[in-house]
Amino acid sequence: MRSFFQVFSLSILSSSVWAGADWDYHHPEQWNTLSPNFAACSGHNQSPINIERSVKADLKPLQFSYQILIQRIHNNGHTVQVDFEEGGELMLDGDRFQLKQFHLHTPSENKIHGKQYPLEIHFVHANAKGELAVVGMMYAQGAENPQLARIWNSLPKQKGQTVELKQPQSVNHLLPKNLDYYRFSGSLTTPPCSEGVRWLILKEIQTASVKQIEDFAKLLGHPNNRPVQPLNGRIVVEN
Ligand SMILES: [Zn+2]
Asked: What average pLDDT does the segment 137-163 reach?
């Protein structure tokens, strides 16, 4: 019998469908009814959220070590995802969080002051105890994004397909110069919606061209954003 953390980790760190219960974006408000394993989806600390009010706090700067190559991309039907074995790291709360994967949402899941962006990237990390930290970053419509362009060259069009990147690039290149951020406690935005996830949303907004945004939306064939969830008294802090 697998431990909770093993099952928990497998579900988000691999791109496989949760055993016994498939889900989609047609009725995200019913995810909690699809399986007893999805009960957390009706919890009170769920993601995504609308970051409307935030409190200035003495937050430590984020320390990324992302000198790790993006080599292959997988289409799991819910999103496209890049998985990592080891080598990427985020230092947070005095602890090492390994970069496990990143993936994309269109439109954005989190909102900032009510604004929804056409694209949001999620960098998913786990520490040695299996606790999760997700860094989110928004893309507005604008100039073509050269870093995304290299990934877009190799986007897997079919569900289940994996494509090797023609021009492997360092994850580091995706990060902005300014790493100021919002922080709050939330959950996975897909089943099993597990809570206790440390959310960090970068304030600097990137751009992607209309074509880049449309290409990704067409590839998925459906929006893959869970609607924003009630804050229920949670406080968002920022540096
Ligand atoms: Zn996500």
From this structure: 95
What confidence score (pLDDT) does residue 167 get?
81
Give the start-to-end residue ranges of the domains of the chain.
44-238
Could you tell me the CATH superfamily of domain 44-238? Alpha carbonic anhydrase (3.10.200.10)
Give the residue-averaged pLDDT of 164-188: 95
What three-state secondary structure class fits 44?
A: coil
Strand pairing partners for 24? none
Global confidence as pTM:
0.91
Structure confidence by residue, pLDDT tens digits, 205-220: 999 999 999 999 999 9
Residue 125 catalytic? no
Q: Are 127 and 98 in contact (CB under 8 A)?
A: yes
User: Which among 228, 238, 234, 182 has a CA at the least distance from the CA of 50?
Assistant: 228
Q: How far apart are the CA of 69 and the centre of ligand 1, in A?
A: 20
| Residue 105 CA to ligand 1 centre (angstroms) | 6
Cα 16 to ligand 1 centre (Å) = 15
Q: How long is the chain?
A: 239
* Ligand 1 centre distance from Cα of residue 179 (Å): 19
Q: Tell me which of 78, 103, 105, 125 is the catalytic residue.
A: 78
